Structure prediction request, 328 residues.
Amino acid sequence: MMNNFMRKVLIIGSKGMLGQELVRVFSRDKNYKVVGWDRNEIDITDKKKTEKKILKLGPDIIINAAAYNAVDKCEEDEKEYELARKINGLAPGYLAEIAKDTPLNFPSKRGGGKRGAIFIHYSTDYVFGGEMPEVPMQKSCNHICHECAMRNKFTAEVGFDEKAKPSPISRYGKSKLLGEKEVQKHGDKYYIIRLSKLFGKPAISKDAKKSFFDVMLELGRKNKEVKAVDEETSCFTYTPDLAQGTKKIIESKKPFGIYHIANGDPCTWYEAVVELYKQAKLKTKVIPVNADEFPRPAQRPFYSVLLNTKLKPLRSYKEALKEYLSNL
Prediction:
């Protein structure tokens, strides 16, 4: 029999890279009863069946870690783009609406009433890219940049905060932005969490993509030299840190809305590979190249660093990478 104070958490996409980490984090806490569903157990693009199944379960918290992430495939294939729009765009809106009608096992004074599960949905830095972020200035800015850097030791934190206007430049980015809008339109008690360049323990779901670091480790062990794009600056996000951050947002009762969770130290792909090989003690030479060296159907943001203005900053991705490699 379930403890009266135990909150039921439904994690959708439970066998994905992030989903399996969310299951681990919440399962370790005796205050939660975790239910994990993956693609073979629920089709979130079917609103009626999804609603029936979720309402029957009656979760207090619904976490959507399911996503379409074939960035290039949906850029060049209309059917794939339509699938991306359904999974990344419309389905999150269905889930947000269903969450409003879900009867709670653990009624909370927050938000009032005995209905309305908390809904968490994940988005991406790829909702940006069409415009560069503004560069903040010192209050006493004299508009002479070299003096600012050399004399006043001012380092501007450049990136997109939670209030920045999205401007996606790929179909994938547009599908994720649609998801944000649908959640905001149909949801009530929701958190939209943006992340970037996810890495962590490989997903156990079928046909799951490998993380960038896993791919580059394989290449580094097989080759004497590799090429890496020295552009597209953004942050990495380590799944255990993201899962813990998600739990903290819920438990600290943060105001509902958009949040950014990413590890510190923004970098290019090239800079990340150099750090990876350094930590993995690989002698493989890394050659920096421009993005056009690897033509891809979908355009990537040149700069998409996520600024976190609402939460305690996460550790550097370098520290997270060290932990990840030690567990391989």
Observations:
- The first helix runs from residue 17 to 27.
- The chain has one domain: 7-326.
- Strands lie at 7-12, 32-37, 61-64, 118-124, 190-195, 198-199, 225-229, 237-238, 257-260, 285-289.
